[in-house]
Write a structure and sequence with these properties.
Blueprint: E1 4-11, E2 14-19, E3 33-35, E4 41-43, E5 51-56, H1 64-77, E6 84-90, H2 94-104, E7 110-113, H3 119-123, E8 127-128, E9 137-141, E10 147-152, H4 162-170
Parallel strand pairs: 5-6, 6-7
Antiparallel strand pairs: 1-2, 2-8, 3-4, 5-9, 9-10
Length: 173
């Protein structure tokens, strides 16, 4: 059974249980399998040799904070250069993600779905047991797949620290 952590996250003040390990700076980034679309999958290896900023959101289509977080990292991605890839992961279905990103003009961030088996959520310790969504968080992983920055946002409805995440990326390029 996967490790569970309680008391570390809330949704509008209500406690949540996160499934999976709590990653820390210096940890080797766990591999993962997520969906690019209904057929193709992606893994950490697909972004080998690049600095990776992974922005995790509960649902792109349903909350203003998720929308704002993805827009902000899309803007930042345009300025970070070719050695950086910015990924957004949610459990939204791939066709819903595609529809949303097309409608919103998101084109610098790669949007990936953890809808099939919540593999990413469990590997990165962000799967919310009670509602099977992913907890808002940000990970920066260097070109050698070592975690260099982690932010598990304590309250689901709050924004991550964009400036600290971007600074962590810039320190690696």
């Amino acid at each position: 059974m996967a490790q569970e952590r309680t008391g570390v996250a809330t949704a509008q003040g209500n406690p949540l249980t996160l499934v999976g390990p709590e990653l820390k700076v210096g940890d080797k980034a766990p591999d993962f399998k997520v969906s690019k679309n209904l057929i193709e999958q992606a893994s950490l290896a697909d972004y080998a040799g690049k600095v990776k900023l992974i922005s995790v959101v509960p649902s792109l289509d349903h909350t203003g904070v998720c929308d704002a977080q993805t827009r902000r990292f899309d803007e930042e991605a345009a300025k970070l250069g070719d050695n950086v890839v910015v990924l957004t992961v949610s459990v939204d279905l791939p066709f819903a993600q595609s529809r949303w990103s097309s409608a919103e003009g998101i084109d610098n961030v790669i949007i990936l779905s953890d809808y099939k088996d919540r593999n990413f959520g469990q590997s990165y310790g962000v799967l919310i047991k009670e509602i099977q969504l992913l907890m808002r968080s940000v990970f920066v992983i260097d070109a050698d797949n070592t975690v260099q920055y982690v932010e598990y946002v304590g309250e689901m409805t709050e924004h991550p620290n964009y400036e600290n995440a971007v600074a962590a990326v810039k320190a690696l390029v």
